[in-house]
Amino acid sequence: MSREEEDFHRRWREGADSLARLYVSLLDASYTQYEREFLVLQRRLLSTCETSWEQLETRRRVAEELLMGAYSRGVPWADFGRALKRIRRLGYSNVERRVHVAILFARWSTLYPEHRPAARRLLDVAERHFLAAPRDVPLYESMRQSLELIRRDPGFERPSRS
After folding, report:
1. Contact at 8 Å (CB) between 26 and 37?
2. pTM greater than 0.85 (yes/no)
3. What is the pLDDT of residues 85-96, one digit of tens each?
């Protein structure tokens, strides 16, 4: 491994540790505080990035944490939608991230049923990406099981084939 690769992996581990520590420290915080603190951390982490790819991945990881915080707090659409839009704008690193986001949206929509149709559409798209992925992709079996589980929920059954 080159010196540049070693430096990148070190920075990545430090960034992941910072995200995890902040997540734990804000378990009981309001979503407003949670979002504010993660965006502060994002600015700090971005200052250590050396490439545009590192910056994009850092933004994606923070966006995923914001969505997790919105989901776990059952926040209304104004907050959840903002977090979801941020992730969708940044794109997904891989199919596992896409599936995870779609399942979170589907689960969140049980609290806000007016958003179930949009959650269903996002889940359908994520599942199509999953089905197109090679079976040796990391976490394939976990994604399959998660999709099977959410598809048992009323309103999220697989589309019937006529």
Report:
1. yes
2. yes
3. 999 999 998 999
